[in-house]
Amino acid sequence: MREDIDPGRRERYMPSMIDDKIKSLNILIAPDKVLRAHARPVAAHDNQAVRELIPRMFATMYRAPGIGLAAPQVGLGLRLAVVDLMTNDKPAPIVMINPEIVALSKELATHEEGCLSLPDQYADVIRPALVKVRFLDQSGARKEIEADGLLSACLQHEIDHLDGVLFVDHISALKRNMIMRRLSKDMRQKREDALVG
Ligand code: GNR
Ligand code: NI
Asked: Which of 11, 27, 69, 178 is deepest in the core (most CB within 10 A)?
């Protein structure tokens, strides 16, 4: 069961912290060069912009719905991402500013991944099973998370976005090309459908 993409989830789990007045941001779809760029660290002068951006990133992620969203996915080349796995329907929002991976396990794990920038495309991705990430939270406090399971995959997936890396870069070229072709075909079909109405 891919509960992260269950379309019914939006109504069932939408956290009350996301009110209807918050406007969603536009999610970039691959191929887009912003998704392939290296994002720059958030600096002190970004403070106000980032404060306004965070609720909009959460709203965009929860509505999509997704379990993570990195700033480059909404066209901003900043080292910032939001995550919420909402395990057992319980909101557990994480804001990561300037995240750094400080440790990865030798042990590997496979998870089926999807990406809001590659809608409806999924593949099994092998990554280190455990990760330790250091970052600043929304109030500028230093935080560290050690994760396993889906959270580990998600944190690594989000930090990849900050370096212009997509989950398809971790699979075979054959599968990657299949997904990229299918995505552009799906997107072309969507544009044609929209035109016809
Ligand atoms: O919604 C998402 N699901 C997901 C599933 C497995 C591993 C990573 C993810 S993140 C993804 C949302 C997204 O595109 N984040 O960048
Ligand atoms: Ni993604």
From this structure: 69
**Probe ligand 1: pick from 80, 116, 165, max atoms within 8 Å of CB?**
116
End-to-end CA distance of the chain, in Å?
A: 32
CA of 194 relative to ligand 2 center, distance in Å: 25
DSSP H or E stretch at residue 185 = helix 173-196
Residue 37 near residue 72 (C-beta atoms within 8 A): yes
In a domain, 192, yes or no: no
The candidate with the shortest Cα–Cα distance to 93, out of 82, 101, 104, is: 82
Q: What is the distance in A from the centroid of ligand 1 to the CA of 106?
A: 22
Residue 10 one-letter amino acid: R
Q: Find the CATH number of the domain harbouring 91.
A: 3.90.45.10
Tell me if 98 is assigned to some domain: yes
Counting the structural domains of the chain, the total is 1
With a cut of 50, say whether residue 6 has pLDDT above it: no
Backbone angles phi, psi at 112, to 5 degrees: -75, 125
Residue 9 has pLDDT above 80, yes or no: no
Q: How far apart are CA 166 and CA 10, in angstroms?
A: 24
Q: Does residue 177 sit within a domain?
A: no
Quick check: 156 pLDDT over 90? yes
Distance CA 81, CA 58 (A): 9
Domain residues for 27?
A: 2-170
